[in-house]
Design goal:
The protein is mostly helical and 332 residues long. It is 39% helix and 8% strand. One of its GO terms (biological process) is non-canonical Wnt signaling pathway. InterPro entries: Frizzled/SFRP (IPR015526), Frizzled_dom (IPR020067), Frizzled_dom_sf (IPR036790).
């Protein structure tokens, strides 16, 4: 069923705005030549044969070492692995090269400039929107060759599909940094295939395919979520970045918070005409207090994720909105 209404639009818009190969060779067998006819010849050649064996055994190791060096060194020369959460695993390349065209020399610096664009990139209008944003700031590394940014056609495709939805649903105008006019037509990143959302508006669906939701008794969540994401594989890819943090056991409510943020809980007894709700601000604050130090240590000193900023979420003390705590009977 469709859950979109004026109240839903207002709620979603308000929350969103707060927003290498090692090669081995078989060991060569020593060539003993013709059959020795006399024992004195055999004894004379024994040392020579053993010496040859030793040399043959060493040769494959040296060759393998050289091959391995050739396979790994040039491909990643000058490159660094992408670790920013809005791009890692979500674009068709893994490494970038800095400084970028904006003269940002570190990914931490890039993050500060990209964070406010996160709401753009998540919207399900087109996967090319994220590709444009990420490759402008974190261009694909080509080793010694110049890094690759988005093609003009990629940008135009993203803008055509996303400019109006972003304005209508999230009150966001097309960012000036995303202008397509001066982008190249060659030696650039071509558009990727888009997948349409099954439901245009938030709809209650099973959240069993979202791994972090496993074990919670609330079995349904709303998709698209408040960030405009509707693809479960994309959501799982992004949430997987929190696996190291979850493994620290920094707070028992972390998985509950992540599940409710990425797939807002569908509840039957909501006190409003919006049949889904979010984790309460209070559990968000508890999780952040316990987990933020671990997050910074594990994730290159990045700040606490924008999507988990607690002021986004309703308070348990509010009489105007509903939210869910892990201790609520419906939660487990």
């Amino acid at each position: 069923m469709k859950l979109w209404s004026a109240n839903v639009l207002a709620t979603i818009a308000a929350i969103s705005l707060l927003l290498a190969v090692t090669s081995g060779q078989p060991k060569a067998k020593p060539n003993n030549g013709k059959k020795r006819l006399r024992e004195n010849v055999a004894r004379r050649d024994k040392n020579t044969t053993n010496s040859k064996k030793a040399n043959v055994k060493k040769a494959p190791a040296a060759a393998g070492s050289q091959l391995n060096k050739k396979a790994t060194a040039p491909a990643l020369e000058g490159c660094e692995e992408i670790f920013l959460p809005m791009c890692k695993g979500l674009v068709p390349y893994t490494h970038t090269k800095l400084p970028n065209q904006f003269n940002h020399s570190t990914q931490l610096e890039v993050y500060r400039h990209m964070e406010h664009l996160w709401a753009y990139m998540d919207h399900s209008c087109s996967r090319n929107l994220r590709l444009v944003a990420c490759s402008l700031y974190l261009p694909k590394c080509q080793g010694k060759q110049p890094p690759l940014g988005p093609c003009k056609a990629t940008c135009v495709r993203a803008k055509k599909k996303c400019a109006q939805p972003l304005k209508d649903y999230m009150a966001l105008d097309w960012d000036k940094k995303f202008e397509c006019t001066n982008l190249p037509n060659k030696r650039c990143l071509k558009a990727v295939k888009d997948d349409e959302c099954i439901d245009e508006y938030p709809t209650c669906v099973s959240n069993s395919n979202i791994k972090v939701c496993t074990g919670l008794s609330i079995s349904q969540g709303a998709l698209p979520n408040m960030f405009g994401q509707c693809k479960v594989d994309e959501i799982n890819t992004e949430i997987s970045q929190f696996e190291k943090l979850i493994a620290t056991n920094c707070h028992s409510g972390l998985k509950f918070l992540l599940c409710g943020v990425y797939s807002p809980f569908c509840v039957r007894n909501a006190a409003s005409d919006i049949p889904f709700t979010f984790p309460c601000k209070e559990i968000c604050e508890e999780v952040r207090k316990s987990c933020e130090p671990h997050y910074r240590k594990l994730y290159h000193q990045l700040p606490w994720p924008n999507k988990l900023q607690c002021h986004r979420y309703p308070s348990a003390a509010s009489s105007d909105t509903t939210c869910v705590m892990p201790t609520d009977p419906m939660a487990f």
